[in-house]
Amino acid sequence: MTIRVAVPDAAMLGRLASAVGDDVELVVWRPGDPPLSGVTDLLVMPYTVSYESLRGLGGQVRHIQSQSLGYDGAGESVPTGVTLSNAVGVHEAPTAEMAMTLILASQRGWPEVGRNQDSQKWDRPMWPGLIGRRVLLIGVGGIGQEFALRIAGFGAKLTRVARTARDDTHGIDELPDLLPDADIVVLAIPLNDETRGLVDDSFLNQLPAGALVVNVSRGPIVDTAALVSHVRSGAVRSALDVVDPEPLPAGHPLWSLPGSLLSPHLGGAVQSMNTRVDPLVLEQIDLLLRGGRPKNIVID
Amino acid sequence: MTIRVAVPDAAMLGRLASAVGDDVELVVWRPGDPPLSGVTDLLVMPYTVSYESLRGLGGQVRHIQSQSLGYDGAGESVPTGVTLSNAVGVHEAPTAEMAMTLILASQRGWPEVGRNQDSQKWDRPMWPGLIGRRVLLIGVGGIGQEFALRIAGFGAKLTRVARTARDDTHGIDELPDLLPDADIVVLAIPLNDETRGLVDDSFLNQLPAGALVVNVSRGPIVDTAALVSHVRSGAVRSALDVVDPEPLPAGHPLWSLPGSLLSPHLGGAVQSMNTRVDPLVLEQIDLLLRGGRPKNIVID
To answer: What is the per-residue pLDDT across B108-129, written as a single tens digit (0 to 9) for each?
Structure first.
């Protein structure tokens, strides 16, 4: 049995070539390229393209491996009869690392400290810091677990929230009791009908003055207009790796408001990403060669 | 027995007043103010003044409590017959927190990501990240220990270096073997004759391309001219909370070079600092009232 695997660039092909046998035909092919003859067994999507690029691939591919963790909106674009796997294990740790980066930078004065660097100003106010702060983690999936590992040594007080309460984790229905005691809120939940717009005017009104809102999951979990209003008034600060819309348009207030720290959806984008993607793709190839189905299927 | 304790501002006086008895006369007084009549038993220095301000206080004070950890240069300024205590336990944790802040920010693309925010540019290259990186911690005192606690959850490979080898710690004489394998070097050692200029041209030449030099102890541990040369060429990056000289003069290349992240000696400067300073001062007061000597004496 021979299978065909399409990868998005020559670099990945080069890395995988030495790890597969003659029973795997590796080709470089991306959605939008002219169709290949015959059916491709596994298509590895480029990292940063939209799921909409998958429309029209019905009959051309059997399985699709995304290089992203989130798959909101994918259901409408994956053709009938094609499965989609998300990239479990690839982005959780770097995304949690980005959450810690955003928290520490904000709590120690960025973006203002960075602006002082650029204006060559030696200015030394006292910034809040993380020690002793009460951190509310909303979401205890892969990103949330990696986040909890990382914040453990910082002397902060971590409270966990999930859809339903369990052991040491509160249910999301308890937010009205929890938000007034949160110095920092970290959003690490998938985007779906339940979470869209979770951080709205009412949510923000319940936070204490000066609280920090950190989003590393998906932009639409936050009502952008409500957040802008609360940041502008100084009621809260924000540190966002994801926004709504993306890319954030020029002139949007989140670029420039004091207390608004931004990174352009870099959560999983670190140079070590390949060291986690390649083993996942090789595992999927192995499953297919043994006549099985890929793992981590999220659309079927 | 009654003692007189001079504190640098009314805020500290207010915080301490409710915690001491009638046997403590609390006054607000700072070096440079007109002399008080009689001898002050304990002088709490302002946080950010130089030890040189202590010259000439001979006969006016018995003990001095610094609010800093470092005391390089204090020996020349503390009058004969006066003891100086440093602020053990106050700054180690926030300084380690700043080291983590600088590492994470640098590894995830700041100051460039901050400059992109200010120019409203949505740019998404792959930055190095911290996962899997080899971190060489030079100094395993209070700051180093707090740093090790904090980096533990990040999936980095930590190697410890101290003046002399012990258990899991290498001796500083092993640096030639260690530097070529260090993606990140963290300086957490006191400034003294042995450590001044430790990070010189030779040290920097031994680092791998693109390594990050992090300094949270004292500026003169790094030969600034050598560092500037290596950052300018792109051979290394730097993330400095302390520099030589301080304040860094306008126009200095470390303000603006790509790969140079700066904070203006903010290591211990967090809003929770009082929650660690006040108990230390109260403990010193208690020791004096019981006829003892202050703890943490570094100049005697």
So the answer is: 999 999 999 999 999 999 999 9
Letter for the amino acid at A125? Answer: P
Say if residue A222 is in the same domain as residue A187.
yes
Q: B10 to chain A, minimum CA–CA distance in Å?
A: 17
Please compute, for residue B249, the number of CA atoms within 13 A of its CA located in the half-sphere on the CB side: 4
Contacts of A94 in chain B (CB under 8 A): 129, 131
Measured between alpha carbons, how far is residue A298 from residues A93, A210, B103 in Å? Answer: 20, 38, 35
User: Using CB atoms within 10 A of its CB, is residue B218 exposed (0-12), middle (13-18) or buried (19+)?
Assistant: buried
Neighbour-count burial of A235, counting CB atoms closer than 10 A to its CB (0-12 exposed, 13-18 middle, 19+ buried): middle
ipTM passes above 0.90: yes
Nearest C-alpha in A relative to B95: A129
Q: Which domain holds residue A55?
A: 3-90+270-299
Tens-digit pLDDT profile for residues A113-139: 999 999 999 999 999 999 999 999 999
Cis-peptide, bond into residue A294, ω within 30° of zero: no
pTM: 0.95
- Give kind and range of the element (H or E) at residue A212: strand A211-215
Same domain, A67 and A103: no
Task: Identify the CATH number of the domain in which residue B59 sits.
Answer: 3.40.50.720
pLDDT at B73 over 90: no
Q: Do B43 and B153 belong together in one domain?
A: no
Q: How many helices and strands, by DSSP H and E, does chain A display?
A: 8, 13
Residue B93: which of A131, A149, A252 has the nearest Cβ? A131
Q: Do both A223 and A286 map to the same domain?
A: no
Q: Pick the residue of B48, B95, B97 with the most A CBs within 10 A to test the interface with A by mutation.
A: B97
Question: Closest to B129 (Cβ–Cβ): which among A255, A264, A270?
Answer: A270
State whether A155 and A220 are in the same domain: yes
- Provide the number of structural domains found in chain A: 2
pLDDT tens digit string along B3-21? Answer: 999 999 999 999 999 999 9
- Chain B residues with CB-CB distance to A115 below 8 A: 114, 118
Region of B253 (left: φ > 0; alpha: ψ -120 to 50; beta: rest) is: alpha
Residues B7 and A274: their CA atoms lie apart, in Å, by 56
Q: Whole-angstrom Cα distance, residue A73 to residue A82? A: 15
Query: Which of B241, B254, B270 best tests the A interface by mutation, with the highest count of A CBs <10 A?
Result: B270
